[in-house]
Amino acid sequence: MSLNQYNTFRAKIGIDDEISYGTCGIVIFKLFKDNNLAYISPTLYPSSATINVNLNISNTDQLKLITDTSGDNAFCDHGDWADAKFSVENIPPTTPSNLAGVAPIDNYYQLS
Ligand SMILES: [Ca+2]
Hints:
Oligomer: single chain
Strand content: 35-45%
Shape: elongated
CATH topology: Jelly Rolls
Bound molecules: calcium ion
């Protein structure tokens, strides 16, 4: 699957509801775009609220989803990437750096 046709990755991350006891099930979620860390979650516990991840993946060839043990161990680390999806969403355009705007004439800006 090519990511080039999408610009957004969304998911709901957290510890699965089947884990609900003690200090078991502690994870950190990470997203890598082309092997560069692009998102890291706080340390999540079974009692933590679900986090909505919304990541711009424009110009990304590979997205890697990592559920890290958080450094303790992997016991009960049932991390969920729920409702994970790629989509095309409107992203506000950025101003081209090589253009200069001239004062508005009849409500239009002249760019050159
Ligand atoms: Ca853990």
